[in-house]
Amino acid sequence: MTIAFDEMKEPDGRPRPAYAELSAWLGGVAPDVLAYRRQEAELLFRRIGITFSVYGETEAEERLIPFDVIPRILSAAEWDLVHRGLEQRVKAINLYLKDIYTGREILKAGIIPDDMVFQNPVFRPEMNGQKVPHDIYVHIAGIDIVRVDAESFYVLEDNARTPSGVSYMLENREIMLRLFPELFSRHRVAPVENYPDELLATLKSVAPDTTSADPNVVLLTPGVFNSAYYEHSFLADKLGVELVEGRDLFIKDEVVYMRTTEGPKRVDVIYRRIDDDFLDPLTFRPDSALGVPGLMSAYQAGNVTLANAVGTGISDDKAIYSYMPQIVKFYLDQEPILKNVPTWCCRESDHLSYVSDHLSELVVKEVHGSGGYGMLIGPAASSAQIAEFRAKIKTHPKNFIAQPTLALSTCPTCVDSGIAPRHVDLRPFVLTGRDRVRIVPGGLTRVALKAGSLVVNSSQGGGTKDTWVLDR
Amino acid sequence: MMAGMRLRIRHGTVYRYASPTKGVIQTLHLTPRNHASQYVAYWRLDVSENAKLYMHEDAFGNITHNFTAEGAFTELGVHVDGEVETHDTDGLVSGTIERFPPSLYLRETPLTHPDAAILAFAQEVMSAAGGDGGLKLLHAMLGRVNGDIVFDTDPTHTTTTAVEAFALKRGVCQDLTHIFISAVRSLGVPARYVGGYFHRMDGIIDQDAGHAWAEAYVPDLGWVAFDAANGISATDAHVRVAVGLDYLGVTPIRGTRYGGGSETMDVKVRVDQAKRQMQN
Amino acid sequence: MLSRTADSLYWIARHVERAEYLARILDGTMRLTNLPLAYVGTSNEWKSAIATAGNTKLFEDNYPEANEETVIHFLALSTENPSSIRNCFETARANARAVRTALTAEMWETINTAWIELQRFSNDPGTREEITRFLRWVQETSLRFDGSAYRTMLRNDSYWFTRLGLYLERADNTARILDVKYHLLLPRLEPVGGSLDYFQWAAILRSVSALTAYHWVYRESVKPWLVADLLILNDQMPRSLANCYENLVRYLDEIAGMYGRQGPAQRQARAIYNRLEASRMEEIFQHGLHEFINEFIADNSSLGAAISQQYLM
User: Fold this and answer.
1) Alpha helices, DSSP H only, in A64-220?
2) pLDDT of C32-86, one tens digit each?
């Protein structure tokens, strides 16, 4: 197996320029000082988290996602590359979605097979021919990126439905600013705290043309029992918008209103954190009590913007993922800046036989799985697990894709034995408005805390770090 | 000259609420469109409360109406009245509005998802039909679904899946249609659900529901309509209102009501030959 | 603000207020039943406590008889009784959770801590000492909640809706005590019972924390018609019907002012307040205290419905 790229150190052990200050500081700091700061961080999280952890038992567990105090650093030049790559990719995704739900040129051109779209559960026939305000489908994207060497950033997964985690990005920075003021004084770290402002500007910019000068934006949550409820209330608070549930909204004459103490108030933009299936019982699942009956009729009439649009799953589906380089080329006539991990789609018989023969080298993922579940990591798997997966992919080839095991880059991380390299990924958040694309520098760095582990998901023992993008 | 009919259709749905409701929102699939063998001579849609009806075309090309009515009322009626000229084309449906290529209609839905029993049934019909994936198979399927599933209004309801009805071996036109669709899709034949009206041959004109059948796609021929409940291809006795992947896509009325306690729904459908016969 | 948010704020306040009232009722009843029979007579004070809480039917369906053990269980700790102290705090906390960001940190902490604390109390009422401590704790929680709302909330519609909930509930509670005990307060031509009724009157005053206030206001020994006057018409007395309505009118006016619009709730509240202001005790007695109270309870609950209709739905 190849040796992972160490983000802090050159192969000869010297620190890379972006990490020079941090490396020197880590070298000089007494172990007990670091240990003390770690404790303090946890205390702060618990205190800030008081408001969060009270929402329910599962929430309390969720908030206690381990936080690592050593920041992950990107140089200005590195971020510039990532930034350009993200902007390009999300632009292509939006053009692709518009095409998929209108002219379907990409299918006619034979680039993506029809059945991969039409028979995909995340494709929404109901969106066919539907105009969305300003042709933007994905207003908020979370793109998971990994790094394998000095130049190469790979996209591991696009999240174009209701990506979460941005509250951790914001809180991690708050904690770090409190704990390590001296480190910030030695670096020029680009701020992330303006994310809520940027998000609100984005959401307001995509209001339907029919709305008044100051559009009314709301955040739609499934409610207190949703595992991400704390993020919903956190964001609504920071945005200064109402946190609404389906029952707070109603439709009259194809316009959305919220019930307020001053009577019905028109709603123009809904930042929704409810899945498509539950949005409108008159169009989707008839048994959904979380949504707003008739919402889709208001949407169809062009009287409300849903962010993200309905049906964006057909852009971030794991089966569609492998076509992303072609998608970028098809719509933008550009070479993709961010790389795609080579992907074998088991639905194709030659791919299937390759995957079946090379399971011990590959990562196999379920097309509709998430959170690191239903996944086989070949090099770490037992022969029994491999045999089990071989049978699975043979029975339902369409449900699986496979990728080579990437050597995810590592970052110095506090572990029981001191400071050791651990694998990381990065989820930057890309905001697409009517006027422009906004990306706050950095994102959420997730770290696999177990030695050698490549799984960064919090449900599987991952933690988070603050992400620093240095100014030039 | 093709055989044809002019059918008068009256379809009334009346909701009654135990206490006054504060408001109602509904989406209707109650308006047929023209195609080669169907011409809508006139069609009127009435809602008993003051409400503006918003007309749209849905993703499948059907006409829909939305409305919201604000309370307080204890009764709400939705009535259609119209006349449609139809022709018998041996089930062949042409000139329809198509918003998707036929392959879309291979999608599974929760109501039509097949289980092992339906898959086995489909295979069995396929091999009995001599492995032919075209008309022969579809007619064989029509015969088997019609013969195997007993028409029975008791055990199933609007949310019954193909799997549940197939296990019961009982159901209404909706269930037979779901089973037909589920089975032929599993054999790679695009199929869709049709909601509409049926003129009974036995002289009975009053019915307590609309009708449902399926359309399957045969290469080089196009969409062909199969009425599993009656065991026939669609004829000039069928009036096609809406198509979709399953019942949910063509449900005549989907709605929600705010307040109003318990509710009852009373449906009356009347399909008979119009007094004024066709001239040609 | 969202109607649902206002609704939650309103109900949080109502439930906390109700919990406190129940605690006072239980406290007063315990004191009364501690006295030798000669001082209080043979009436079943525990039965009367249930009636005062307004829940006789549900109680009788579930318990064989009304005694200290069953009534304390029913009113304080029962999970079956939707308005037991336990359930009041449960509901208040569930509402608070749903509108967490509309509360100040101090209010949230009070509710949440009370809720966590309550998990420690089992189904068993425990010893008298434990019960007394529990009841005092309930009253302190209510004081803390009310105090933190008063000291930390912005004076906008959020605050006013909590006040509406509090005063509407308080008026209802005071009226219910009067409803159950009215016969003790009727003026009599000849003094009867003497000491027997004194303790009943004192218990009533104590349940609305007005025993000391009474003496300050009237500078007299306890007389039933003055007790009625204090609880109904005296607008200096924080739990009197007049005071509750002075506040309801005031906060409804604040809301109407902010929204630039008034409706049935404002009109109804003013009408009830005007009636209280114009009333004199002699007239009330003349026309029938019981009828007066019954009418008031109906009016008060119809104002609650009007507020819901106008703002909370």
Assistant:
1) 76-100, 105-108, 114-118, 166-179, 181-186, 195-205
2) 888 777 666 667 888 888 988 888 899 999 999 999 899 999 999 999 999 999 9
Contact between C4 and A247 using a beta-carbon 8 Å cutoff? yes
* The domain made up of B4-86+252-273 is a member of CATH 2.60.40.2250: yes
Q: Cβ of A253 and B68 within 8 Å?
A: yes
The single residue listed with the structure tokens 């009232």 is C21
A87-115 pLDDT, tens per residue?
999 999 999 999 999 999 999 999 999 99
Which residue of C lies nearest to A238 if distances are taken between CA atoms?
C101
How many Å from the N-terminal Cα to the C-terminal Cα in chain B? 9
Say whether pLDDT at C124 is over 80.
no
Indicate if ipTM > 0.90. Answer: yes
Domain positions in chain B are 4-86+252-273, 89-249
* Cross-strand partners of B225: B215
The confidence score (pLDDT) of residue C40 equals: 62
CA distance A158 to chain C (A): 32
Q: Which of A138-142, B129-133, C284-288 has the highest mean pLDDT?
A: A138-142
Interface of A with C in 45-64 (CB under 8 A): 51, 54-55
CA nearest neighbour of C244 among C281, C286, C273:
C273
Share of chain A above pLDDT 90, in %: 69
User: Measured between beta carbons, which residues in chain C are less than 8 angstroms from residue A258?
Assistant: 2
Angle at B29 between CA B24 and CA B31, to 5 degrees: 120
List residues bridging with B93 in a β-sheet. B223
Average model confidence (pLDDT) across chain B = 94
- CATH says B89-249 is which class? alpha beta
Tokens 């105009």 -> residue: A131
Smallest Cβ–Cβ distance between C2 and the set A51, A223, A244 belongs to A244
| Domains with residue ranges and CATH for chain A | 17-192+318-338+407-469 (no CATH), 209-303 (3.40.50.11290), 342-404 (3.30.1490.270)
Q: pLDDT of B145-170, one tens digit each?
A: 999 999 999 899 989 999 999 999 99
- Residue in B closest to A131 by C-alpha: B59
Average pLDDT of C129-143? Answer: 92
Residues from chain A that touch B255, judged by Cβ atoms under 8 A, are 282, 293
Count helices and strands in chain B by DSSP H and E runs = 5, 15
Q: What is the pLDDT of residue C31?
A: 85
Helix (H, G, I), strand (E, B) or coil at B46: strand
Tokens of A169: 């990005």
Q: Which amino acid is at C157?
A: D
* Nearest CB to A128 within list B59, B254, B255: B59
Nearest CB to B27: which of A118, A125, A282? A282
Q: Tell me, what's the pLDDT at B133?
A: 78
CB contacts, 8 Å: B66 with chain A = 254, 294, 297
The DSSP 8-state label assigned to residue A15 in this structure reads B
- The DSSP code for B254 is E
> Which residue in chain C has the smallest CA separation from A56?
C97
Residue C16's beta-bridge partner residues?
none
Q: Check CB contact under 8 Å for B27 and A301.
A: no
Q: Cis peptide leading into B72, omega within 30 of 0?
A: yes
Asked if A260's CB is within 8 angstroms of C2's CB, the reply is yes
CA dist., res. C2 & res. B262, Å (int) = 27
pLDDT number for residue A62:
44
A248 vs B: CB within 8 A = no
Model confidence at B126: pLDDT above 90: yes
Query: Other CB atoms closer than 10 Å to residue A91's CB: what's the count?
Result: 18
Mean pLDDT estimate for chain A: 90
Q: Which residue of A has its CA nearest to B110?
A: A285
Which of A114, A119, A251 is closest, CB to CB, to B25?
Answer: A251
pLDDT at A51: 40
